[in-house]
Each structure stands twice: as C-alpha cells, then as structure tokens.
Amino acid sequence: MAPPSKSQQRTPAIIYDSFLWLWTVIIDLFFREIHPRSTWRIPRTGPVIFVAAPHANQFVDPLILMRVVRADAKRRIAILIAAKSMKRKFIGWAAGLMQSVPVGRALDDKKPAEGRIWQPDPEGKPFKILGEGVDFTNGDFVKGGLLVLPTVNNVAANAEIAEVVGQTEIRLKKAFKGDVAMRQLSAGDGGDETNDMTNGEFKEKPLRGTKFQVAPHVDQGAVYDAVFQRLHEGGCIGIFPEGGSHDRTELLPLKPGLAIMALGALEKDPECGVTIVPVGMNYFHAHKFRSRCVIEFGPPISIDPELVEQYRSGNKRDPVGKVLEEVTEALKAVTLQAPDYETLMLVQTVRRLYNPQGKRLPLPMIIELQRRFLLGFEKYKDDDRVKKIKKGVMEYHKKLMQLNIRDHQLSYAKYPWWKVIGVFFFRAFKLAGLALASGPGVVLFSPVFVGGKLISIRKAREALAASTVKIQARDVIATWKILVSLALAPTLMIIYTAIGTYWTYRNRVGGRVPEWIPLWFVTIFQAPLYLFACYWALRFGEIGMDIFKSLRPLFLLLFPSSSNTLVRLREQRSALQEQITEIVNDLGPELFPDFDNQRILSDAHHAPQSPSRSRPTTPSHTRDGSNDVDALRFTPASPTSPKPLTRKRTDSNELPRNESFGNINNFPIFATRPGTPNRSRSRTNSSDGFKLKGFTALTSKKKDDESEKRGLEAVSRDLKAAMRERGKRRSKSGWEFERDDGSEGEDEGKKAV
C-alpha cells in the first residue's frame, strides 16, 4: 500500500467526518427526505470512482453523495470540484478540508474574441474555420483551446482547436454539431452586429458567420496524478461527468475525463482493481425547501483488460469511447431521462393518476414507476391511444393549474357540505395556532428567509448568463439558500444575543429579570433559545404551509359553482385513471416481457398472463458481480375480491399526513419528514399497503384435516427449532447476516425467535 497522500496527511479523518456531520444536519433541515437505494452495491474495499448524474444541485449533490456513502459503506470520497469554485473563500476552504480535488474548466475562463468566424465548406471540409477581423496567431488561440459560439435557446456549441493554420484559418479537432451551429457559421447567412441569433431565429441585415468566444487550453496532468495516487491507495473518487451543474431534464454528454481516470489508473497498476459505480441523483423539486431526493446506486462496472491494453498501446480513443458508452447506459438505468419539461410533467401527472388501489408508494417505487412511464411514452408516443391520453392529461393538468389546486386535493370533492365546513374551520384554527407558535421565530429570522430567496434568485441570473447549458439556473438556487442561511442565521443570533445581554445589563429588561441571575447565564441561555426559535419557525412553518395550501379547495367547495367544477374535475380524473390503467395493461406486456411478475402496482381487474406470475415483492439482489438488473419482486397479484392488507391502510376520507397534527408526535422536535436511513436495510416495512408474501404454501395429499393440521404443526416446530439453533450459533460467533434485500446488518437471530 502506498503512503498517505499529502492531502490526507493535512486533513485527518476526524475533520472530514466532523464537517460531513455538520453538513448532514444542514442538509436534513433543507430536505424533507433523502432515500438511499441499493447502497449494498457499493464496494466496501478497493478503489472506486463514483460517477453521479444528473448534476442538478451545484454544491448540494456532492454533500448528499458523501453523506450516504459514509453512512452506508463507511467510506470517504474525494470529490472533483471546479477550480473556479475553489477560489471562493468559504467554499474553497471547506472543500479543502473535505479532501476535494480542484479541476480547471476551459469554459470558466472563456472570453469574447474580436471579429467573426465562419465555415466555408460545411459538407466537404467541416473542420476548416475561417475568420474575419481576427488574428488567430495572437496567442489566445492554441491547440486544445475552444471556440464557443453564442448561446441560442440556452445552448452554446463549442469545438476544440486542433491546429492554428494561419492568421485567418483554424482546423478543428471535431466539427461543430447541430443545425443551429451550422446556421450560425454559414458563409452567407448570419445576424446583425448586435446579436447573431435570438431564440433560433435570425434577424435582418445578414452578415457572414458569427461572433464568438475563445477558451484557453487547460492542462489536467496534475489532476490526473492526484486521482491516480488516491485510487492506487485504495481510495474513492467522486465525479460529476457532465462537466457542471444544470437544470435540464436529460443527461448532458459525459466528459471523457472519467474514462481516462479509470483506464489511466489501470494502465499504471493493472492489479489495482478500479471499479466505476453509477449514481443517480433523483430529486423532487431540487431547488425548493423541504423537497425530496432518491439517490440510487447501480451495479459496479469493471473495466475490460482488453480495453486497458488498447489504451496502453496508444489507441486511446476507442477504449475511452467504449467506457463512456457503458457508463452512460448505466446512468440511464438509475436516473429519469425526459426529453423536456413538458414530458416530465406529463409523466409525473400520469404516475399520480395510475394507482388502481390508491396505495401510498415509497419514494424508490415512485422513481421506478416514473422511469417505466418514460420508457413507455418514448416507445409508444405515436400510438393514437397514447396521444389521446396525453391530450386528456394535459387538459386535466391545465384545469388544476387554473384552479391553483393539487391532484390529491380533489378527494375533498366527495365530502358532504357539513364536513367541508367543519374541516375548513378546523384547519383554519390550526393554522392560526401554528402562526402564533412560529410567529416570534419568523419575525426574528425573516432576514434569513427573505435574504436567501433574493440572493439565490440573483445568483441564478448570474449563473444563467455565464452558462451554455442551463435553462433557468435552478441548480444553484438550493446551494445559495443554504449558504445565505449559514451566514445570516449565526450573525442574527449574535446580534440578538448582544442586544439581550446589553438590555439585561442596563435595566434587567425593564425589571423582568431577577437580580440573582448572573449576566453570563443570560448570555449563554440566549444562544439555544434563538436556535430553537429558528428551528421552531422552520418546522411549524412547513406544517402551516401545507395546511394553508389545503384551504383553497375547501374554500371553493363552499360555493355551488366552484363546487360543481371540482366534482366534474374529479369525474374527469376517474375517467383518465381508467384509460391509463387499461392502456398499461395492454401495452405493458409488450414493453416488459415479464410484466406481471415485475409489476409495481397490481390491478384487481387484470388477470396475469400466467398463474405462476406474481407481482414484485421486496427487492432482492444478486451479488455475483455481474451487471445484473436490480429485479423488483412483489407480492402476488391481488385477487378479484381483495383480502385485507397486512398493513393498516389509511382511509381515503382521512386527512393526508402532511396536512394534520397527527405526525407531530411521531418524530423528534415536531418533525414532519421520515427519518433518512443511515444504513442499508430491508424495505419490507417501507412499502405501505403491500401485502407481504409468506412461506410457500404446503400442499398435502391427505384429505383428513386433522392429519394436515398435525403436519403443519410439525413443520412449524422444526422451523422454530432451527431458528433457535441458528440464533445460538450467531450469538456465539458474532457473525453478521445478510438480509433479504442484500443489505448487511447486525445479528437479529434472537429477535427473530
């Protein structure tokens, strides 16, 4: 084993863990729930490259990845971070303590260039670029640098320079791609002097070519050396291979750096055993406070030795391309890939409508269901039935937006008028109580809430102006909300503590503080008081906002005209549910060969294709090292006459959990989110409403009921005896056992008995 690197010597593990714990507390406050999935796939030893995408939450994504890997796999990750971010005082200092590796990005240093560029022969010589009013030999244009075209529809094409031929000619390494880039570089079609292209449409007064920017060549040799050293020491590297954060619904093309790191490490030490673990970062409204996240780990990828030999022999392009292709496919299996926001919104609405038995699904199953619907829409988008459903769902969603209500709130439309009045005033009373309880904290820390909102919006505008891929720059909003809160909240607490201490010193707060209480105690007592007031405002404010949002549909139901609208909308929803369920039953077996066995939600009116097929049960995994798909197996399909579920189902007439006081007593300090799992564990108890599959039924040829009963009792005694013996052996040896979902945990043999 190689000696520890300098970065590891400067940053002890306790500092890494302490800072990660601090960030974990902050992340838990911002997110309602962070759900890890398939963390058992993380190798416990050996060098690992974690490849995470999509990069939808600037500095928050690395923190979530580090937190989950540290908690579940007991491993520490060195994240590759942009060198531009390392120059920020606080972020650079914190990233250094977390053992991050700075990476220079050419596009961070791009600058406007003089003159215009154009392409004389796009078909015959696509690599040839000519310039007007520009000198390519002035030193700004070098081999490995980039030519960057103006941004159009939030996308800016760029190409790498292969050679500077002369003052007015450059040869590219790869040609520009896309119709927009071709039109920008056309020899006789362009734009005016101020703006070459706007929203994909050229203006009048066409000129030859387009204005452009130039980015320098960045030598990444030091970065690769640092990565190779850590991997050869058996450490872990985390990389976001899209090259930067963004708010798009699809993956951006992966940068070749991750493939070069894996192949280069194996080239230097073929026995190091580097593996690549794909990680899907799946958010529900990533930029919003109290949103949700599912982080999913795919099967580890091992590099084929033949690719390493090709890379060593000098043929680097082919093995790098094959590794990138394999990683891209692996990331698609753990992420949601929608071509645009409209399709993503459509799939999310269909997923909410498709729930034949009204079951409450855990987050991983919601992600999996949306992923399957995206596959279905992509394959059958030209089917007339799919087009009809798409049109109906879009109309339904539009009406919801016009009424400013949510899909689940339509359940109020079936309430009788007297219950609507009672629920409305009851919730209004609860909202008033929450407002009084959280009022002091809201007033004291309103600068944090307002400042975080305003500054994050301003930073998003700055990021959007400097980016070539962002749409609304929502990926930076959550980061700046957290950073502003970290700066303003402690500052306000210090100011309020100083004011309180001075007031006590002057006149004992108008004589309200007894003389026997020392001044130092007043100072120390105020710190936890203000901290609790801030937390109280956050937690009760969250519950209050949920209740406030539920008042509008109840208010509409108090008036006959709007009440009829909600009733009709509910009927439209029921019709859409039937259509969606029907088309899923028709097209599902075509898209998924083992549809009934791999089904997430069963339909009581849809018989499986084969009696032996069953719905998915608790996820089970194989550990054979192959790139197998994490199969979901569930309980048998529901019979025509549904039996009582093993778990108590919430009655449809009851209030949702997040709109009631009922959940306050279930979590510490009035929390409303379910606790984030800090280790991999069986998800048997996480699937609300699913009937668990028991032992295989024992069939007997005997017709005598008494003999059959005695046989079952004998089997039961043998099972209990075996479990007791197994528990005794484990308690003596201290072994760990493997759970049914592949995760490891401490011995529970005694509890099982």
TrEMBL record:
Bias (Low complexity) occurs at 610-620
Which GO terms label this protein's molecular function in UniProt? glycerol-3-phosphate O-acyltransferase activity; glycerone-phosphate O-acyltransferase activity
Q: Where are the transmembrane segments?
A: 428-450, 482-505, 517-538
UniProt xrefs under InterPro entries? GPAT/DAPAT, Plipid/glycerol_acylTrfase
Q: Which GO terms describe its biological process?
A: phospholipid biosynthetic process
Instruction: Identify the Pfam families for this entry.
Output: Acyltransferase
In this chain the Phospholipid/glycerol acyltransferase domain maps to 49-284
Looking at the record, which segments are called Disordered? Answer: 186-205, 604-753
Q: Which UniProt keywords apply?
A: Membrane, Transmembrane, Transmembrane helix
- Residue ranges of coiled coil: none
> Where is there biased composition of kind Basic and acidic residues?
648-657, 701-725, 733-753
What name does this protein carry?
Phospholipid/glycerol acyltransferase domain-containing protein
The species this protein was found in: Cryoendolithus antarcticus
High-level lineage = Eukaryota, Fungi, Dikarya, Ascomycota, Pezizomycotina
